[in-house]
Amino acid sequence: MKVTGAQALLKCLEEQKVETIFGFPGGAVIDLYDEIMKSDKLTHVLVRHEQGAVHAADAYGRVRGEVGVALVTSGPGATNTVTGIASAYLDSIPLVVFTGQVPTGLIGNDAFQEVDIVGITRPCTKHNYLIKDVKDLVPTVREAFHIAQTGRPGPVLIDLPKDVMAAKVKFPELKPVKMRTYKPTYEPHPGQIDKCCKTILRAKKPVLYIGGGVIASNAHEEVTELARKLNIPVTMTLMGLGGFPGTDALSMGMLGMHGTYYSNMAVAKCDLLIGVGARFDDRVTGRIDAFAPHAKIIHIDIDPTSISKNVKVDIPIVADCKHALSAMNTWFDRSDKFNADEVKGIREPWLEKIKEWKARHPLGYVKETDKIKPQFVVQKLHELTKGDAIITTEVGQNQMWAAQFYHFNHPRAFMTSGGLGVMGYGFPAAIGAQMAARDRVVIDIAGDGSLQMNIQEMATAKQYNCPVKIALLNNNYLGMVRQWQELFYDKRYSATVLDVAPDFVALAEAYGHVGLRATKPSEVVPVIKEALATDSLVLMDFVIDREEGVYPMVPAGKATTEMLLV
Amino acid sequence: MKHTISVLLQNKPGVLSRVTGLFSGRGFNIESLSVAQTLEKDVSCLTLVTSGDSNIIEQITKQLHKLIDIIKVTDISETEYVERDMALIRVKAESTTRAEVLRITDIFRGRVVDVGAKSYAVEVTGSCGKVQAAVDLLRPIGIQEIVRTGTIAMTRAAK
Lengths: 566, 159
What we know:
The structure holds two protein chains of two kinds. Chain A is an alpha/beta fold. Chain A is globular. The relative contact order of chain A is 0.11. Chain B is elongated.
């Protein structure tokens, strides 16, 4: 029996076990939306801006460990997804984005709402397709889901001309996707594992440096086992937070520009750096020649282009993190050269040194009695949610305070736009996360600048009953840029003062939500408690110390040991 | 240092743009590029000359390989290989210079492929250096137009 392209696409989504998609309709995808209306298996979340759809799909996929799906129309619908796609690309998040397109006969004609979205997104997708023949539709969708979630994950875009959605096709039977040109390497080379494990045994001052790859490959248990077995301190990138328990004695928290003093010192002084699913990004390394200058470097990554891109690696291992780490754990379990007590003894002075650094400059801030400190808010959020909430963030100071003070113990609980740094990510992401886990507490730790970039999603949250909590750290500034201006531009606050701002409490109420405000430190806990006890969206407007900064801070281009401290 | 990289890719719309976009987006350099179908009609071979230190070349080959539509990437400069470049050169050929043009063409084992009232079009084939030498010698006589294919290259067979 023949079906239309639109029907075939919906069958494909069912085949891929997609339960929820995020989207916004338009002329070019009207056939698809007609089918969606008939479907009782698929929940469609109508966002209020297409960028929101992609961020929501991104977080939805991250929470569940699945592929996030977004659907938008042609032209402006498609271009509005670009920021979300680029963010997912830099953070290696599996997404499939469907965009409508003008009918094939009109392509290239500068038709109404026509844009070459495949051309536009070529550099920010893992792969993309324009379907010109309905016969290619189903195989392409299957291939797209395969590409998005295997190897180093990433976003894939499929452009769907309107006539292809209406054309009839015989639905082909499901076969495993086989591609001649795409075969990611999952298994590590045994010789490299051997070399790597022997090097770890010899190291006196090793550091595990883990990134988003650990979370993407669900390797948190393996990495935790390795760190504990060999008594190796662990530092995490922004994307790696939650990959290792943040409250564990071996955790040093985040490294890099706003990393902890002790993780940056440990990396600077270590004799072996074991990078796992991380990419030595400039926010992590600072001045590259001063990064881990005394260390041998082991790098495990599924993407060969990440290896030796920024920092020369001594032992490269191209593999899935989970596979490589379990191979390492097995190696140690079987090796007669490995003696746990002996290794503990060897590591003792190194762990002592790190303790000393921790004691000298712990993460902290100057407490004041009359002003709300943003770090205090995050600490209280952590305490009152017992560290179990899903946290999303916007970008800037709010993001860094969240990363520093909410000690993530579990993977897939922290959603942030790490690589691209998208202001406006956090709120739609919180909606996506809430749709993925209806029974979890989801909190968007936000700034007043970022929140306004996708504030329209307030209506989406209302429509789908998402009881997301927004912890707005409100300083009426674009705080992170202001901090740079304070430190490096003689306090010339060019264009960073947000003097004109809405009354956020009233704004939340205008959308039918609850708004609460705290202006004194004593009000913080009651506000959080009330918000957590309320079964609807609550915007908590914390009026914070306006010029509070994020510290430690490594000025751009400096070595990571040259930190500005509290 | 110059490197000649040979790339086998799926012959699909947009693939060439993925390759060139990769180079412009990451700030790599393309000195020449040539592409045509292979024996398989859905596979093309692209020969690309680029330059950079070993780190850059390593990134270029890895990044190319990462593109989904690319089948195989070989840095042929690391092997024994033959390379060819072809130029069509229109040179001023008046009574005083005609003999000189023919002599130079002969030295480079080129051929005259078009004759006009005041010009010859000459075809020269060889390594990139040889073609460049021919161009350099013809230039003082007066080159009116030049078209070059860019380098194509092939690994030598095992001996």
